[in-house]
Amino acid sequence: MKEPTWIPLFKIPLGAAERQALLEVVDSGHLTQGPRVQQLEAQFAAATGARHAIAVSSGTTALHLALLAHEIGEGHEVITTPFTFIASVNSILYVGATPVLVDIDPGTFNLDPGRLEAALTPRTRAIMPVDLYGAPCQMDQIMEFAARHGLVVIEDAAQAIGATVHGQPVGSFCTTCFSLYESKNVTAGEGGVITTNDEGVAEQCRLIRNHGMRRRYHHEMLGYNSRLSDLHAALAIPQMARLAEITAARQANADYYTAAIQNPRVIKPAVPAGLRSAWNVYTLRVPEGREALAAHLAAAGIETGIFYPEPAHRQEHVMALGLAHGPLPEAERAAREVLSLPVRPDLTAEERERIVAAVNAWRGA
Length: 365
Prior knowledge:
Blueprint: H1 16-28, H2 35-48, E1 52-56, H3 59-69, E2 77-80, H4 87-94, E3 98-101, H5 116-119, E4 124-128, H6 139-149, E5 152-156, E6 164-165, E7 168-169, E8 175-179, E9 192-196, H7 199-209, E10 213-215, E11 218-219, H8 230-241, H9 243-260, E12 275-276, E13 282-285, H10 290-299, H11 316-320, H12 329-337, E14 338-341, H13 349-361
Parallel strand pairs: 2-3, 2-4, 4-5, 5-8
Antiparallel strand pairs: 1-9, 6-7, 6-12, 8-9, 10-11, 13-14
């Protein structure tokens, strides 16, 4: 029997435009931070509606620099979610601050704004909401809460370029950090971008990413080498030019899944009214038999992923810190149940149908 054609979860969307862009950088002889980085920054500012965009070496670096630029450090607490890639929590630890973990909304997988009040202490300085799977947090509620309590908001939108909240682009509400890692909707292989409307924060981020240097060999502060190269930027520029098309295709695929998946053994993701996800992945809940469903789909030639099998507070180095936190049952339940499907913009109609048919055909563990 012929093996089914494999449908990967992620596929780097590189073509002729990306190859040409790379060749132009190579031929230019300017490989480090230069005009392509500036062009990419302009594209991110335009796409998000933010006044400033600062390209850096990774999404994790973006979070680290954003925290430093907002002068968050020793003695401060930052409220965030336990159900995220570890970079969110690590970046808070990098600056010497304390992550305060708040449980998630079981429908959206994102930080539950209704739990923020109980997490406040006199040391609370910031909130770091995470737009998991490309689905935006309820940023209007979070920003209102932060303004009421005088808190900084740094949004981890690593997976969410192209997402909107009541029509407003993610990246325009507050200082926001995006990733350009190879699995993201727009990729440079590696890299990140910070967007902000605060000129002072933008200037600090630019200084910190370049050894605290505004003029060559004149260092105003302790900084890092956190620059993005023109080679990396060149890969992302053609994709940013197609961002609306990429996002629309992902949303169409997700809408198809939501309408066509009818297996009562799985729970489809929820997106609150007025929010539009960028759909980095389409994530089901499987209350019983997640591994069996993953094996069933693999046998049908469909790759799946588990993001993430352990919440942040169950990671060894976080547990070793002995951080106090309340029960986090929703994050722990999500870690046991989530299973992500491909929602790539290049999926064919036949591939979408195969994915839906395989999910619907599963009869449980």
